[in-house]
Amino acid sequence: MDVLLAMSVYVRVVEEGSMTAAAQACGLSTTMVGNHIRALEQRLGVSLLQRTTRRQRLTEFGTQYYQRCVEVLGLVDAAEQLAEQAQAEPAGRLRITAPLTFGVERLSPALAEYHRHYPKVRLDVVLSNQRLDLLDNGFDIAIRLGNPDPANGVIARRLEDYTLTICAAPAYLHAHGIPQAPMDLCAHNCLAFDYPAGDDWQWVEKQWRLEGAEGEVLVPVSGSIIMNSSSGLHQAALAGMGIVMMPDPLVADDLANGRLVPLLQAYRLPRRPMNLMYASDRYRLPKIRTFVDFALDRWARPA
């Protein structure tokens, strides 16, 4: 039995509140998680958990053992960090989380170059529009949209803003005309992204916000489709289905080669701040330091 692995699984079971949740967090099956817990209990000769069909509860010993496991695993992690710091060449697993569209269109191609420079670094990347906690989820690097939440020991470095462009395929514009002013969009088929509840851009689904010489203009838009996938809307726009407001990383190549045409360029569109985040006490690790420098070199916000 791998005692350290079993201890880490036990800690995750306690913190997640169930074996099923711990299995998802650890990338294991629920059966394997149960096997680790039973192996620990057999090794110790003491029960760690009291289980019923509806809940689990720590035994008195299980509570004490959990605290010791946290201490032991923390010491092991600190020892591994010390070993990584001693290495001249960056190595080990680097866990990164980033927004889906930015991750697919900008981060993924760049990772190939980073890997060429640092081939001993194993990249573990999670692309998600959910704000996964940097420390609780074990990430080394997080690229986040929006203003960063204040957190002790976390550094946020500003990247270039996340910007949007209103555009459409030439075929659509040939058939329906080119909007010359924001309110002209009301007469067009505008394809909207379905932002989840609570997102600070949820308003984009029903109205588009533009800013020009006359000030801010809120345009009520409607169309034949609302979709929760930027890639899906992108393909619909390329097919000539309607006008879209798309993240620039997704449409930059299409705008450059004419597959999509930018519209209302005299108006400023919404933008979101984007930040690179990492734990301050881990910056000394070569794998983190080199990736931070790599990312800032490509995407740092202009002074």
UniProtKB/TrEMBL annotation:
Family annotation (PANTHER family): HTH-TYPE TRANSCRIPTIONAL ACTIVATOR TTDR-RELATED (PTHR30537:SF5), HTH-TYPE TRANSCRIPTIONAL REGULATOR (PTHR30537)
Describe the location of the HTH lysR-type domain by residue ranges: 1-59
Highest taxon, organism lineage: Bacteria
Q: Which terms are listed as keywords in the entry? A: DNA-binding, Transcription, Transcription regulation
Protein name, entry field: LysR family transcriptional regulator
Which family would the database say this protein is a member of? Belongs to the LysR transcriptional regulatory family.
